[in-house]
Amino acid sequence: MKKIIINIGRQLGSGGRIIAKDLAEEFNCKFYDKEILNLAAKESGFSEKFFEQNDESKGFFRSLVHMQIPYLTNNVFYHNDFSQEGLFKFQSDAIRKAASHESCVFVGRCADYILRDYDNVINIFITAKLEWRMEQVMRRHSCDKTTAEKIIKNEESSRTSYYNYYTGKQWGDSTSYDLCVRSDLLGLKETEKYIALYIRKYFDIP
């Protein structure tokens, strides 16, 4: 099968990550969610923990004054770009490098924008009604409805700021994607099957 790139944007609690992982298995793609942070860490010399604390959010980068030495992996104090934009560049380079080598499924992290000039790319956004997403978050975090709603709003505010800042586009805007799907209508398994069928048609895969 020819090399393909599947980028998955998702609302919190929509099951987007689970669906993305199933799509990676079906199309024999390498799966990247937080795994891309490990690649970026190896390329940059920062620890993976440092990327995790600055992942998919804009504006809470810790200044050098408050930097802890364990964040660095090999005495690269004077050789790396410590700006928020520098971290985004390291992550973007890791995404491009992975996409150049093999078929991949990327979850979030502006991959649709970063790989906008690549061939054989499809961009998908997975959404669901808020009440349904709250139920998923309540189960995952063993919390009440109020807490679940707060988690969703806080996380999505960060994702929106991060995506909009680096892409100049609006996170979740349908014009940025080839397909937008509500996972609460069909359930996760059937939504994955629906998306897989669409991908086969899109790439003309038997």
> How many H/I helices?
9
Approximate strand percentage: 5-15%
Biggest sheet character: 5 strands, parallel
Low-confidence stretches: 58-81
Strand order of the largest sheet: 2-3-1-4-5
Helical residue percent? Answer: 40-55%
The ordered string of helix (H) and strand (E) elements is: EHEHHHEHEHHEHH
Which class do the helix and strand fractions yield?
alpha/beta
Distance between the termini: 9 Å
Radius of gyration (Å): 18 Å
Number of strands: 5
Nearest-integer average pLDDT: 84
What spatial form do the alpha-carbon principal axes imply? globular
Folded structure, characterized:
The chain is α/β, with parallel strands linked by helices and 206 residues long. 50% of the residues lie in helices and 12% in strands. The chain has nine helices and five strands; from the N terminus they run E-H-E-H-H-H-E-H-E-H-H-E-H-H. Strands 2-3-1-4-5 form a five-stranded parallel β-sheet, with helices on both faces. Helix 1 (16-26) crosses helix 9, helix 2 crosses helix 4 and helix 6 (130-141) packs across helix 7 (145-167). The relative contact order is 0.21. Mean pLDDT is 84; it is low at 58-81.
